[in-house]
Amino acid sequence: MKWPVAVAALVALSLSVPVRAEEKGGGNHTYLVTTTHTPEECLAALDEMAAKDPKLLSKMEWGCKSGDHSGYAFVEAKDEKAALAQLPETNRATAKAIAVTKFSPAQLKAIHEKMGK
User: What's the CATH fold of domain 26-116?
Assistant: First the structure.
């Protein structure tokens, strides 16, 4: 099976696999939030993050020292908009929030079983 087809099959089949208890209901979900800035904006971007939410600043992983002026963090939020709202407004212009999910061995086994049918 080619890679895009396999990913599409995994996504489609995972929708029919029972979700974990923490994913049920209208609660929070985990998002990978990324934001970028230029080398010239670097210090100001970090200062703005520290001023808005020092705790979020401590959760962010930054690639700035490697020349990748991007920040990465896993945050809990009810939706993508709420995840992005945790960032300072100036950081949101380049930000993305991607909903992420963990799969358990049991879920993976169920997906394999359904693909085999």
Answer: Alpha-Beta Plaits (3.30.70)
